[in-house]
Amino acid sequence: MMLQAQLHCLCLFTLYLTTGYGQEGKFSGPLKPMTFSIFEGQGPSQIIFQFKASPLAVTFKLTGETDDIFQIQPDGLLYHSKALDRETRAVHKLQVSALDAHGNTVEGPVPITIEVKDINDNRPVFLQPKYEGSVRQNSRPGSQELDPLKNPSYKLVVSVEDMGGQNEHSFSDSTSVDIMVKENIWKTPEPVEIEENSTNPYPIKITQVRWNDPDALYSLVDKEKPSQFPFSIDQEGDIYVTQPLDREEKDAYVFYAAARDEHGKPLAFPLKIQVKVKDINDNPPTCPSTVTVLEVQEDEQIGSSIGTLMAHDMDEENTMNSVLRYRIVDQTPKVPRDGLFLVQTYSGTFQLAVQSLRKRDTPQYNLTVEVSDKDFKTLCFVQINIIDINDQIPIFEESDYGNLTLPEDTAIGTVILTIQATDADEPYTGSSKILYRITQGDSEGCLEIETDPQTNTGYVKVKKPLDFEAVAVHNIVFQAENPEPLALGVQYNASSSATFRLIVTDVNEAPQFSQQVYQAKVSEDVAKGTKVGNVTAKDPEGLDISYSLRGDKRGWLKIDPVTGEIFSVAPLDREAESLYQVQVVATEVGGSSLSSTAQFHLTLTDVNDNPPRLVEEYTGLFFCYPLKAPGSLIFEATDDDQQSLRGRHFTFSLGSESLQKDWEVSKINGTHASLSTKHTGFEERVYHIPVRISDGGWPPLEGTVSLAVTFCKCVEDRCFQPAGHMPGIPTVGMTVGILLSTFLVIGIILAVVFFQIKKNKGQHNVESAQASEVKPLRN
Fold first, then answer.
1. Rounded to the nearest 5°, which phi and psi values hold at 202?
2. Which of 98, 191, 628, 715 makes an SS bond possible with 53, Cβ 3.0 to 4.6 Å?
3. Which has the closest alpha carbon to 561: 580, 584, 532, 531?
4. Could you report how far apart the first and last alpha carbons of the chain are, in Å?
5. 2-117, what's its fold?
6. What is the CATH number of domain 512-605?
7. SS (H, E, C) 60-80
8. Alpha-carbon torsion, ordered 561, 564, 569, 572, to 10 deg
């Protein structure tokens, strides 16, 4: 026994040395509350921690839930001597105390918590070696294929595997399951028929549904969500109608019965409930309107259909409840006799029964018609109007309207003649209305006739310009007709026709161009004297024509006055005006010198005649001084030629080779480039960088632009200039210079004034002396 204890101590000592325990750090430290996590199933004699106590302590004491597993050495080495089992105890609550040589507590006790971490050391186990269950046909989604007649039962083997079955060290278990398939009683009931307006006491049971198991909660769902839903269901699954139904209001209902468990979860798909409302004869026939108006011509043959009375019954169609019968019970007036009309018993169609009618005898008949179904009768009223037939033709009041002379420039819309015909048929009907048309003498369509609907007067107007050169004399024939067809055996004759002679006189007219707008297209670089287009005009009277231009504001064109050919006389410039518009004037030579104008539009196509330039004046390009790293500035080029011609493909380069050590120009795309610095050693001043830009046209053109780049001190990424150096404000030096200049000018002015005063004083003294010398001579 002593040997075994010595070997155990030797093992702990070896583990103590090899793992570094005893050194102040991760595995040793002062006595204080701590928590350790240890996997279950580890072998015995596993060191946990070594506690250090004050010098007074000579040993340690371990208490709490040790379960004879945890021990502590006198030197504070805490370890467990047996494997841990999380399923037995997941957490061990321990206390450690430090004792002196007399067994008195020096430190502690302090709490020490040991958490046992789980490992997969238990396999899953079914609670029963065999399970039994049942399922009803169609009772759950996914079980629609079950059929108790074909397969009344199933034997299944169910396996379970822990760790998701993804580890080779996982455990598993199996059991058997016997499933019995039962018939499903949750079935859609047959459609229900309910007679409308039933007098039986409500509610009335109409059908039922049943869930496969008891305790289901039933409800009805109507997707249409009406304001009043006349059905209910109790908790036995019985469905009731709660009030009388009206087929004419709604002839069918479709809703759903649902079954849910006590938690409100649906047990299956809802069942469709269909209810049809059976009709009873509870609606009388109704007339289509207060009075139904029909018409019949006075020459109508016996048996002809006059019209139909369309009564209506709201009961179900194509049943005895809605079959209607028609019968005439009264005719007013009864002239020339009673019974002039018949009505078809079941269709309501009226026919002429005896003879043709005449409007002058009676223009209108009123009939009372009885409409009935098997239980009800209704009186409807029909008015039959007698319509006059078109048995009279229009007759002109004059057969010849004589001659009329008009100049060919008579204005369009001018009324040149009034014609009149009459018709003996009933006024203001299609039989008496007259329409006039020209049947001869106006093949060019120069004239038109408007008819007054009240008087049947015809007004002959000029519709298109008259043309003496085309037709000088028009022999017109008018025809008067009705819009309604004539009665059988009646035809139009000479009385419905009239004649008229229109004589057109000549008027001197201005020349006429073949078109109002002439268009031409030339390149903008055509040589002077190039023909760019031509125009043509004719004079109706055959006179010669002279051509001239009007509106040639740039002086680019000239026209041959005889031929109408147009030539260039100056360089053309598309960039100045891409569509050049002028007026061409054609003037008679001789006669009254009448003239007319047309438009000449000359489109100029582009050539590459504009060098590239900057798209804008770049005045704000700058770098912050001192430059900390090379930088770049982006600029854009363009030119005034068409984009399609030059294609917007520019090339860029420095305009001076001497600048290549300091600057670099790089192309970004067809229109943009960047100007970059190659170093940072630039002075604080403005640099003017020439850049050469070439286009992609033919012939290629090149332009040189200058980019002004300022190196300046910056504040918030902007150039900063002190107020003393702002443009327009003088500096201190400038102010001193201005003051000195001012004082100098003032000094010069004062010196000149002083000199002039002194000079004048000296001259005055000389004159005084001279005067003194002369006086003795006078004495």
1. -105, 155
2. 98
3. 584
4. 177
5. Immunoglobulin-like (2.60.40)
6. 2.60.40.60
7. EEEEECCCCCEEECCCCEEEE
8. 150
In the numeric block, which tokens belong to residue 124? 């899953």
Architecture of domain 292-387: Sandwich (2.60)
Q: From CA 84, how far away is CA 87, in angstroms rounded?
A: 9
**Alpha helices for 376-435 (secondary structure H):** none
With respect to CATH, is domain 613-725 assigned 3.30.70.100? no
pLDDT digit string (tens) for 538-565? 988 788 899 999 999 999 999 999 999 9
Percent of the chain whose pLDDT exceeds 90? 56
How far apart (Å, rounded) are the C-alpha atoms in residues 186 and 648? 78
In this structure, how many other beta carbons lie within 10 angstroms of the beta carbon of residue 20?
11
Each residue's pLDDT tens digit, 249-301 = 999 999 999 999 999 999 889 999 999 999 999 999 999 999 999 999 887 88
416 with 449: CB under 8 angstroms? no
| Burial class of 346 by CB neighbour count within 10 A (0 to 12, 13 to 18, 19+) | exposed
Pick the CATH number of 395-505 from 2.60.40.60, 3.30.830.10, 3.40.50.300, 1.10.287.110: 2.60.40.60
Q: Identify the burial level of 349 via C-beta atoms within 10 angstroms of its C-beta, where 0-12 means exposed, 13-18 middle and 19 or more buried.
A: middle
CATH number of 192-278: 2.60.40.60
Q: Rg of the Cα trace of the chain?
A: 61
497-to-447, 449, 693 alpha-carbon distances in Å: 17, 14, 85
